[in-house]
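Dear H.,

Thanks for agreeing to be a second pair of eyes. The structure we're designing against is below in token form, covering all 186 positions.
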């Protein structure tokens, strides 16, 4: 593939390259498949916008009948720090009552976003709720009670972009996870 020079010049360091990402996602797909009874109809809930690329690749590694739904929440705006406020911008289109759902997140930082989403979806009486996140920053966890069922990679407490993750809506289309040069956000 052509390199994305226009974006790559802003990256200080690649922390997870494309090959490593894709190999781990294959493993996660297998783990997820094996954790459900054969033929379970699974609803994948993409937390927009960051998880869209992860979910697209992950879904193709899950050997079950899956459907997609999307929820957009906001806790960060254009800053790199959590506000602690989680707002629902777009709710699910379909009911999850008596359905098996897997929440697909890009990254768990403080855990506030995921905790809020789980609490809200539990009130809708799904048959089961599991969670997967591509990235986990365990150093920053505030909500110890948030447990992720399928976790891709633990990463250090650095602001990362690429593979769905943005800074001010940019860099989502990089095929790897990288750290932005500090000069761009300080
Ligand atoms: P909390 O703190 O609620 O945050 O667990 C989860 C949400 O915060 C965003 N987030 C990031 N986005 N690079 C990003 O592009 C990062 O390093 C980062 N850390 C947290 C993300 O939207 C996630 O859903
Ligand atoms: Mg973001």
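And this is the sequence the design step returned. I haven't edited it by hand at all.
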């Amino acid at each position: 593939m052509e390199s994305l020079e226009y974006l790559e010049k802003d990256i200080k360091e690649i922390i997870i390259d494309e090959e490593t990402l894709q190999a781990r996602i294959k493993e996660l797909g297998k783990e997820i498949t094996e954790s459900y009874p054969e033929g379970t109809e699974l609803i994948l809930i993409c937390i927009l916008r960051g998880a869209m690329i992860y979910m697209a690749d992950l879904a193709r590694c899950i050997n079950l009948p899956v459907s997609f739904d999307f929820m957009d929440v906001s806790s960060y705006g254009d800053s790199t720090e959590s506000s602690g406020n989680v707002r629902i911008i777009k709710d699910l289109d379909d009911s999850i009552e008596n359905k098996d759902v897997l929440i697909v997140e890009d990254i768990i930082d403080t855990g506030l976003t995921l905790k809020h989403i789980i609490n809200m979806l539990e009130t809708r009486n799904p048959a089961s709720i599991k969670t997967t996140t591509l990235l986990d920053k365990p150093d920053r966890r505030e909500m110890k009670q948030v447990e992720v069922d399928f976790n891709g990679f633990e990463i250090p407490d650095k602001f990362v972009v690429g593979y769905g993750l943005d800074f001010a809506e940019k860099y989502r289309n990089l095929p790897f996870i990288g750290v932005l040069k500090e000069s761009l956000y300080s």
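Two observations from my side: The mean pLDDT is 91. The first helix runs from residue 5 to 8.

Warmly,
E.
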